[in-house]
Structures are given as C-alpha cells and as structure tokens.
C-alpha cells in the first residue's frame, strides 16, 4: 500500500481536535428525543396495572382502590378444569368466568350439595355465595340454569393465592398428589374426578406452582446473607486490584510457568501413551485395528487396542512439537506481549481512577435497560379491553367473536346460544396507534441496542484516551496530563459523539437482525421444514461472526479516534490496516492477554468462591458462629462466585482496553519514529530493550 503521511507535529491525543461525524451526531440526538417522545406516548396510553392486577370477566382490576373490587385482590376461576384446554395458549384466557374475591376457598363443596341443604345449613350457602356473581342470592333457581348462566361455580376446592390467583392447594403425601389430604373430588356435575386433573388445569395457567415456596426461601436466604455477599464481593474487588497491580512483576513468570506446565503435562501424556502401548504388547486381541472392531458404544473397548494408544501418542507428539516450534519462532513476539502487559499494569498504577470507570458504563446501561423495560411494559399494556363471546356450548357459532358488554344482552347471541356471555379476553385495540404497537416495540428495542452500544463505545474511547495520554508522555509519569480520565471523557463527548454513535449504530443494526432471527427461529421451532431451519441457522451463524468482527473493528477504531480525533470510517480503516501490518503480534498479544486475564478471573472467582463455601457451610472455626443459617447455602455461594467473576471482569476489561491501546500506540510509534534524536521512541525502556537493534527499522512488522 502507499506510505502513510504522518503529522510531524503529533504529540499525543490532546491537541487539534474538531467535531467528527456531525450528521450522525445530529441524527443520534433527534433519535434520543424521539425515544423520549415514544416513552411519553406509551406512558399516556399504557397502564401497568394490567400487568400488576388480574382482570376479572367484567374488565375490572382486582384490588383497585375506589372500585367495588377494592378489598377483593385475588382472581378466582369458576371452573379451573377448563384452563387445561389448549385454547388457553391461543387466546391467553381461560374459557371460564373469572371473579375477584377477597380470599380463596378453603374447603371442598359443590353447588348441588350446598343448594340442597341451604334451608337447614344457611351458613354453608352464605360461604359458597361469596364465590358466585355479585348480587346472586337465589338458591331456588334450578341447578342446570345456574350452571348454564355461570351464576355460581359448580364446585370449589381448597385453594391458596399464587400470583394473585386462586390455585388448588397441592401437597404430596407418600408420593401421591393430594388437595387438603384428598386424592379425589366431586366436580359438581355428578362426576368424581382425580386431583391430578386439577394439577393439569393449574399447569395450564401457570407452570410455577412449586416455585413459590422455593422463591420465598431464596428470598429469605438473600435477606439473611446480603451483608456477607457484599463482603465477598469487596474481597473480590481487592484481589482483582492486587492481581492487576502485581501483573507488572508477575505477568512473565505466570505465563512461562503455565507454558512449561503444559509442555510438561503433554510430555507426561506421551510417556503414558508409550507405556500403555508397550504394556499391551503380546496381549491377545490388542493388535486388532479400530477398523476391525467397527463402532462400539463402550469406548473402553478402544483402550484395549495398541493402535489407539499409538494414535494418541502421535497426536500428542504433534501438539508438543507445534507448541515448542511456536515458542522458538514467536519468542520475541511473546516477550513483546508480556512487556506490553507489564506496561499496562504500570499505566493502570499511574491512572488508578480508570479502574472505576466501568461503574459509569454500568450505571448508563442500567438506565437504558430500565427505560427500555418500562417503555416496553407501557407499550404492551396500552391496549383497550377487548371482550369476546364465551359460550358453554361447544358448537356456538359466535364463540370467540368480539362483543360489547353494554349492548350484548340486546343482541340475538343469547337467544341462539343460551348461557353465552360477553367476557373480558385481553388488551388490544383497532386504532392506528394500536396497530403500530409492534413497530413501536421494534423501535424501542432498536434504540435501546443503539444506546447500550453507545455507552460501551463511550467507555472504550474514554479509557483509550486516558491510556494513550500515558503512552505519548515523553517522561512517565511527569508528563502525564492532569485528570487524564476526566479530560478524555470530555473530549469523547464534546468532539466524537457522532463517531461513537455511528459505530454503535452499525452494531445495533446487526444485533437487531440477530434478535429478529432468534425470534423467527423460536416461532418456526414446530415446523419440520428443514431447508428453512438450515437457512436460519446459516444466517444466525453469519450474523454472529459479523457482530464479533464489528466489535473488534469498532474497539480499535475508538482507540484511533481517542488518539488522533479523526472520523469513524478513517479511524476504522487506519486501525484495520495497522493491525494487518502487525497481524502476528496482534494474534500473540490477544492470546497471551486473554489467557492471563482468564486465569485472573478464575483465580478471583475460584478463590473467593472457595472462601465463601467454607464460610457458608460453617467450616471456618473462627467464623462458625457468625455464619447465617440458610435454607440453601448455594444461593449466596453462587451469587458470590458469579458476582466475583463479574467484578473481576469489570476490572480486567479496563486492563484489556489498556493493553489494546498501548499496543496500537506501540505499532504507531514504530512506524512513526525510528529512535533517532530527531524522532525518538515514546515506548518504555523495557519495550525498547526487547526490540533490540533488529526491529528498529520502521518498516519491520
């Protein structure tokens, strides 16, 4: 390619800034304003009470203040057995009358029995009546008509509230499912049925019946142990900090110990394979080939063959030779990678504030997620109540047609289908706004992805600017500017919002396509069209690769933006070609960094996890009295392990960004300067020493 033209006056990432990608910046600001407008429109139309409170058959919320249901907070299903039908999944509504009640039934009873005995046992009638339609008090009405008009349920079973709905109160006794210690019940229509029918019906509405008690226990565990979990995460933070600060002394040692460890283990493997191979000599059947015995499900058969051990030995020898050759030929690159890692640790030591920048990114992303979730809920609940005809007769032609409860009794539906009712079905609507709700949800998701990617980009650019100002300081640390992180953040926001938004936009488009492909794949799970599935699989794979590639390009483009202040496309192109000219160094540095940081994360999460395990299982004598008594000790333990990993990941992501920035600066330094007094190198003495005299020519990769 043609030689690059360098600015002879370049002295680091602070001077001569101008705004980049202003068009994209303007579009980004307009989109954010539009997003706020969408949130306001959704907020005006939406009503999250539709999610929080159950809705009865009359379209009223259970437990809403200043209505007749104010004290009736729980939804009761007249005939829960109907909830087992597949119609539930299609209409998302049980084809039975639903009422708001103040408490769930606590006994078995059928309408037939209660009506027969209402004269001499009025208390039973009064108890049963609270589960009938409001105002119904006519025990003389024939049972057939009562059940047809759904004035009362045909039966009630002992229930308890779950997710503000009455569900049969299940328990298992000697492995048999029971409700109030009974395994059968009368269904009020002359049949005796098994309790398992109730279970199926309850599962039709909700598959999480058992989760309630588990959920409560987990909640209790968190309530008791949150204090210790925070201490665990604090320890993880301290350990991560120590690991990073000490890397300048230990990076090389850790890496070489591991590499020689791997070589040693593979060497032992080769010896073991040879020993097994030699040991099987002369044993009958061991000289058969793998081809002779064909495919066996029991893999131990293959271990009786000499050929298997020979193959293992050959494979391990090849791997060993490859590793040793790579070490011989790439030794200089590995030394540069380790020196850059040590340099990164030094840079972080001078600019400690960078380690806490991920908190800013975390807060920004948390705001984006909250705003997106709230807007999505308001959009999803901004429909009007839709009522549909519900008929007991299976052949009624009006079933599932929309209706208006105000005028329903004047239509001829009740004449054609006696007992048909106009009941609440779901929230939706026919207006222009309601028709485009799906589009609004897509727009909501897209802008959310854009904003999250922007927050990540801003973090990467800010950190890159801070670390670049460290690299391009002639005398370290004397020439590092004051407040490097803060001034870098200011530069990124003031001059480069457009460029960061542009990079984030490209990534958001690809991510949205991936979300849509996942959605389509989920929808087409049931279909057996193998070609469609294959095509979707290919597309998903391609877009996954594209997203990975774009993330890599964007990250390096943001570093170039932080150093030079050029626009996104120029920075991306220059970063890409710079990396291509140093492709072996990039590969070696990436792998060495990934490995060391992965080792660090495992050390932090594993170390704190082991400590937490001994603490929560009360195996540390000193703290045995302090440890809380828990239902499940794995709840805080898993939280501590995952939390520690995330804390370490947060700190190490800063370090990875630091190493990447220093690497790009180092490549630029090599191409731009030649070590003469007129063009001195900016790199540290240790890097300079490793390069020696051989690689001081700027043309050398």
Question: Strand order, biggest sheet?
Answer: 12-11-13
Q: Calculate the terminal CA-CA distance, rounded to whole Å.
A: 14 Å
| Radius of gyration based on Cα positions | 35 Å
What coarse outline follows from CA principal-axis ratios? globular
The quaternary structure here is single chain
Structural class: mainly alpha
- Bin the strand percentage: 5-15%
Reported for the largest beta sheet, the result is: 3 strands, antiparallel
How many strand units? 13
The average pLDDT is 81
Low-confidence stretches: 207-212, 693-701
Tally of separate helices: 21
Helix content: 55-70%
Overall description:
This protein is mainly α and 701 residues long. Among the domains are: 74-208, no CATH class; 384-428, no CATH class. The chain has 21 helices and 13 strands. It has a 3-stranded antiparallel sheet, with no helix packed on it. The chain has a two-stranded antiparallel ribbon with strand order 1-2. It has a two-stranded antiparallel sheet with strand order 3-4. Helix 8 (211-279) crosses helix 10, helix 11 (331-350) runs antiparallel to helix 21 (685-691) and helix 15 (437-471) runs parallel beside helix 17 (530-564). The two termini are 14 Å apart. The model is unreliable at 207-212 and 693-701 (pLDDT under 50).
List keywords for this structure.
21 helices; 701 residues; two-stranded antiparallel ribbon; 3-stranded antiparallel sheet; 7% strand; mainly alpha
